Amino acid sequence: MCAVADSYDYDLFTIGAGSGGVRASRVAAAHGARVAVAEEYRVGGTCVIRGCVPKKMLVYGAHFAEDLEDAKQFGWNIEGKSFDWVRLRDHVLNDVTRLEGLYGQTLSNHNVTIYRERATITGAHEITLASGQVVTAKYILIATGARPHVPEFPGSEHVITSNEAFHLDALPRRVLIAGGGYIANEFAGIFNEFGCKVTIANRSDTILRSYDAALRDRLLQISMVKGISFLFHAEFEHIEKQADGSLLVKLTGQEPAEYDAVMVATGRVPNTQGLGLETIGVATGRNGEIVVDAFSKTNLDHVYAVGDVTDRVQLTPVAIREGQAFADSVFGPGEPYAVDRSCVPSAVFSHPPIAAVGLTESEARNQLGNIKVYQADFRPMKHVVAGRNERCLYKMIVDAANDRIVGIHMIGPEAPEIMQAAAIAVKAKLTKADFDATVAIHPTMAEELVLFK
Fold first, then answer.
1. What is the three-class DSSP state of 102?
2. Which candidate, 248, 274, 266, places its Cα nearest to that of 130?
3. Which residues are catalytic?
4. Tens of pLDDT, residues 184-217
5. CATH of domain 352-450
6. Which one-letter DSSP state was computed for residue 274?
7. pTM of the predicted model, to two decimals?
8. How far apart are CA 162 and CA 146, in angstroms?
9. Does the domain spanning 10-148+269-331 belong to CATH 3.50.50.60?
10. In what order do the strands lie in the sheet with 247-251?
11. Is the pLDDT of residue 372 over 70?
12. How far apart are CA 399 and CA 407, in angstroms?
């Protein structure tokens, strides 16, 4: 374990109790460090409180709209079905509170001191809490995450973000969602399945630009069939709140239109304002992100940062790994190590969901030149029986020089669940021949991965 001077109140003080901060604090304490963490909102951070976890619960709830309809073709008679948004909302929020308690309990069980207030860096090894209490620490870890970016324009005070979407008193009959990324497409699917009229406005002509073009096009096509409208090259000019509470929205290239809610999902901004970084000279980047090296260390030897506040890979599992690596490297008995951010799998919980790992076809052509592309375009058995025309698309990208699989891309039911195992194979640099040699599990959608010809 790293030697720590007793002159400090704590060996580690973590600012922010999100996924990365909680993991780092817990592991550092397990290594024997004296640890405290400050959280001004709720323990658990974006993922647990207002991000991936409650969003996935809404995704589950939204899926029942189609499942109940499909059930008729499987012999089920479902009479008088209806949807109660408030009941789902409250159940989700109650479960978030349960999870928050578990996260706090985990920290307490590891003897981590929790300060439920804002913390500011006021000196080299000094932190001042909102209550006025001053504490010192040998190491400071910043894990304050990021927040939704809200563009400035006349009437921008009338918009909501994903934060507020979980707390709506009622579902909007007409909702405009600005953005083309995963948050915009996920909430578009959720609101659409709940019966809202959804319009996505994107400032470019491409949704989900980091994903394979074939999957993007397929999601766009399916979303439009489901009734979601898309406006491209459309940016806000102004929003006016009308007497009946509706919002009159003017977008570039579009006639003014009325909506009951406007949600912006146009990226996330690192939470670095007001932390006191400038007090001790912690370097930040163009977007306010904290600049760190491969070991999550800032330009100061005693200050580290992990997670979205560094704006490297904004994914919860990556933040958790960064927190683990930091704690092991600084307080553990072994050699320091860095997180390998290559070949990180990801998913979009749209309707249907997308999952991907490795290079897209375009990236592979640019980087490798000679590649082989295998593709399966099919209707799942469940969709066939239900009379649903929606099709899955699976792609495998192979380096022709050595038969190694460099990318897998999927859109279809349960794609993220299937991808978790498939990502191991890509990370392990397995070949197409390895997949070919694997016996299929039939009948499944996943078997298509070992049947590519």
1. helix
2. 274
3. 442
4. 999 999 999 999 999 999 999 999 999 999 999 9
5. 3.30.390.30
6. T
7. 0.95
8. 12
9. yes
10. 236-241, 247-251, 257-259
11. yes
12. 9
